[in-house]
TrEMBL record:
Alphabetically ordered keywords of this record: Secreted, Signal
InterPro entries in the cross-refs: 6-blade_b-propeller_TolB-like, MRJP/yellow-related
Record flagged with keyword Signal: yes
Lineage: superkingdom: Bacteria
Name this protein carries in UniProt: Major royal jelly protein
Cell compartment(s), UniProt: Secreted
Signal sequence annotation: 1-31
Source organism of the structure: Novacetimonas maltaceti
GO cellular component assignments: extracellular region
A Pfam entry, by short name: MRJP
Amino acid sequence: MRLFRSRPAGRCHLPALLGLALCLGGGVAQAAAATPTRTESPALKVAYTSRRVMNAVAVSDDGRVFVSFPYWGGGDTPGPTVAELAPDGTARPYPDAKWNSWDTTHDNDHAFVRVNAIRFGPDGKLWVVDSGEANVGGAPNPPTGAKAKLVVIDIATGQVTRTISLADASTPHTYIDDLRFHGSTLFLTDAGDPGLVVVDMKTGRQRRVLEHARSTTDERPMYAEGQLLVSNGRPARVHTDQLEVSPDGTKLYFQPSSGPMWVVPTAALEDATLSPAALEQQVRLFHDTPTTGGTAIDGDGNLYVSDTNLLRILRITPEGRATTLVADRRLVWADAMWIAHDGALWIPAVQLNRTATFERDGRSHLNLPVAIYRMDLHLRPVR
């Protein structure tokens, strides 16, 4: 996820049935009175630690572990943007040092600029979401700067097999955040300029949908560790961020980082003949999720949603019933989760809210090292 400028106050769009949510001024504000958990769960095991923030993890079916390091992560050790982790935690630049040397080469087409997400696709390849030189939360992105792109890596050979420019789907305020797959279609979130991006892999066509819709626009404050998330003296806003495709491929779940979560048929998103109004009529409220850092979905359709305020992971059934999977004081801003081939749930705890951007004194309060945790849940993975 990323930081964005707060929106002007407006009317509340969401129904009053949203649990404890309160309609206040600019939107729906979550009650923050609850106290974050102060205990540790024995079910949560440390997999890796790092002096640099790792905001995403992806584990191959043969057990190789890949991570990404966001540019906002802080820490006191330089290193790569995308890496493969050795069993001892050593981070090897992946696929090679050149792809991780944009600061020196400024080769936008052959280097990672600002990576926000990584994941394995149905093709078994590692897909990297590079947001480019997005000017987050302020002035428009530089018109001549690096554009967002996807980088596809064959981990069997270590070779980049494809790059996909997302310039055609980008606006001056775009921040491409994450992606999911459905057959030959890619779905991506734009957390900077609210909307979803639909990419037809057969034709190459890129379309923006649900632009500035209530489902893609952050309309309520965000909370972490019991505190309102503030940047530059104003409540932080992050538009469309998390997304998941149901195991049967019929539904896309998505949300701003502040919640709530919405659901829409994938067939409606893929129907280019639908008008914006007709598509928006297909969107339904799914669950009043809290401020969220990351999500995952298992083969039975259960969603795993991090609660950055109460430091827990929720499990939400396909019917929308939520229970607490684990609550642990170490889960400070749990971000992009991953369900591995052996059914383990991997959880990076990135401490985003403790970085200098979100601290009132403008200084980092990261408690290093940060960690990636795992829970042996014997879940059914879905790709």
